[in-house]
Each structure stands twice: as structure tokens, then as C-alpha cells.
Amino acid sequence: MKVITHKEVAELVKPCTTLMIGGFLGVGTPEGIIDQLIENGVENLTVIGNDTAFEDRGIGKLVKNRLCRKVIVSHIGTNPETQRQMIAGELEVELVPQGTLAERVRAGGAGLGGILTPTGVGTVVENGKQVMEIDGKKYLLELPIRADVALIKAKKCDYYGNLVYNLTATNFNPLMVLAADMVIVEVEEIVPVGTLTPDEIKTPGVLIDYVVVSGVK
Amino acid sequence: MPVDPKEKIARRVAYELKEGYLVNLGIGLPTLVANYIPEGVHVYFQSENGIIGMGPEPEKGFENKDLTNAGAGFVTALPGAMTFDSAFSFILIRGGHLDVTVLGGLQVDEEGHLANWMVPGKMVPGMGGAMDLVTGANKVIVAMTHTAKGEPKIVKKCSLPLTSVRRVDLIVTELAVIQPIDEGLLLKEISEETTLEEVLRLTEARLIVSSELARF
User: Fold this and answer.
1) Domain boundaries A2-114+145-213, corresponding CATH code
2) Structural domain spans, chain A
3) pLDDT at res. B3
């Protein structure tokens, strides 16, 4: 793990990158990293996340600043700009049921070839997918998903990069850490190694490539 | 004093919640159900963004930016609460561990199918967790107004995209309590403020009127 500045993060994330970004309506999203991507105008991004949050928050800010080519999310209802760009044909939106998205990300990080879920059977979500019957019940084969870079938010880490999340800001973050080639984490503070108990560490630092501290440019 | 339709619905839904249940309330009208849990009944509220033991909105000045509900509104964590990641949250939902989900609806039809996530060409919010909730919860309760701008929402066949092909368990409106069964939609209760004729007139779907029709 290497501690870097926000400016250095933006240099690591090139245009046309596929990103996974943690957060649920902006809660648990690395806002500082997103602001830096906007400042640097990193465009043509494909973003995988729970939702497109709000126009002034989280992934919503990337959409508002027209930096996304495609978003793969479960919900866009709180961001009118996403709907506007989608209807105008300026932004591709792939809607995925939230539980399916979580499992696809998990599968991507767990070395699995896909997952079988009953969610979406018989609905438009089924279109183009393989339906499998197991013990008389129908399931959709949903494929794993991975990204070039995961942008993660954690409450704090130590100098090994061991992560501690906070309350409902956890959401997709621990899953996305495992499903990207490069992992960049924004934390609120870095604490000495040994001050975190083994039990409170939810993601081992060995999986983390870079850490930035919120507010430290 | 006229009865507020949303309060009427929330109060009736709350009556369905039993001791020890794990319950997920959707954003909007379903959230109101938490205000009317019968005295002495203790239930656990789960929210798909990753918490069991979610409590009410905190007083001003006590908000925690990392403690929210699925609508990004500030909440509290009751003693004994636990937070977790999104995969675990949907394991609870899909894996048969969630006793009840209460969701809003745009349409429900004679087969008990719910449509509540998009109006093609008009409103595409996305399904969020709704498809998993309706597919996976042990009991699905639809809490919605009986009509929208005078148009029936309980219809012969949903014209809007379905949320799931799983039959919902109960429909509660300000006028009626309806249980989808094999034969169709069983009208079990009508409100004190309505008549059977009015309920039938405001419902497009065929209703089977229970021989033990009750009032609520």
C-alpha cells in the first residue's frame, strides 16, 4: 500500500477506464477522489455502482459533469440528469437488480463464473440471459463483473492498508475491493499499525494499492 | 375529521407485523408503517443499504453522515443494531430470512403480480432492491393508494413492466385489504369509510368478495 495525494489518483485513472465506485446514494463514496477526477476532466468512464446518487453528490457528480459513457447501477431515480442523458442517448444505462449487482461484483472478486438468482425471472431483466432450472425452480445465470480500478471509501486504515468501514457507509465497498485490478481507497485518517484490532479490520491491507486521505490534496 | 389515506394504509399494514419479525419497509408510504407498530410488538427493521435495527430519524444535530436509510435519510441505530455489506444485506433478503417486505406499487393484477419500478418513456428510476425484495421475502405486502388520479391501480393485467412473477401476499389500500389466491383476488376487508360498491367501482380487476367481509 502506498499513500498518495488526490492529484496523483487522478493520474492513475485514465479516460475510458471502467471504475467500480463504492457507496449508496453517495453514503460511503470517496467524494474527494471524485472531485479530483472532475477537476482533471477524466472522461469516457464506465462506472459500476449501486446508483447514480444525486446531481451534487457521489457518482451523480461524474454524470452531471458528463464524464460517464456508461453506468451499470440498480437505481437512477434520485438523479434527473442521469435520466435526461439516458433519454437523449448521451449515456448508456444498464439497470441491474441491487442484490444481483452485489452478487455479480462478489463473483467477480471471488473467482466464480457467475451466480444463479431467482431475481428477475419472468421480467425484462431476463432478456438475453440463460435461464436454468434447478430442482424445479427457475434461476437466471448472472455473470461476474470486474473493473480496471475500484474507488473505495473507508473510515480509516493503518499503514498496511487494513480497512475499517463505518456503519451503512460499508455497502458495496468491501465487495468492490476484491473485483478490480487496482484499488484506491479514500480514508478519513490513517492510524499506526497495531492500533486496529484484527476483528474490526474488514478488508486486509494486502489487497489495497493506494490510499488517499480525505481533504489532503 | 377525514381520515388520511396514507395513515389508514400504514396503520393496517402495521397490524400484520408480528413479534420478532425481520421487516424491510420501502421508501415513501411504507416507511410510515414504523409509526404504528402495535404496542408490545417488537420487530427488527432491516434496510437494504446494510443495517438491522434501524431506528427513527435522529434529532437535529445528532445526524451521522454514515448512518442512513435506503433513501439516504438520516436514521439511528437502536441498541443491538448491526451493519453489514450489500451482499450480506441481499442474502438476508433473497435467502428467506426476511419475514416481511412492505413496498409501494404502481399496479397489481389478478395474478397478484406487482409492477412498481418503471413507467416506460416517462419514469425510469430503476428497480433498486425491489426485484430482490419481492422475489425473496417470505411475505410481500403492497401498500398503496387504491387509485392514481382516479385510475384503478388494481388491474386485470399489469401494463407496466413487472417487478417479479412471484405472487404478492397482501394488498393494502385506504379502501380495501385484498389477498391474491389461486382463484384470483380475494377481497377480505373494506374500510369503515367506504362501501362495497365503491371498492368494486374503483377496482378494474375482478374481486372475489369474501363471505366474511370485514371492516377496518
Assistant:
1) 3.40.1080.10
2) 2-114+145-213
3) 84
- Residue among A25, A117, A174 whose CB faces B94 most closely: A117
Question: What's the structural domain count of chain B?
Answer: 1
- Report CB contact under 8 Å: B161, A174: no
B80 Cα to chain A: minimum distance (Å) = 13
Residue of chain B nearest A103, judged by CA positions:
B87
Across chain A, mean pLDDT equals: 97
ipTM for the whole complex: 0.97
Burial of B119 (0-12, 13-18, 19+ CB in 10 A): middle
**Is A168 in contact with B128 (Cβ distance < 8 A)?**
no
What is the domain extent for residue B32? 5-215
Which pLDDT belongs to residue B1? 60
Taking an 8 Å cut-off on Cβ atoms, the answer to whether A175 and B136 are in contact is no
What is the grid cell recorded at B42?
417488537
Flag whether the pTM goes above 0.90.
Answer: yes
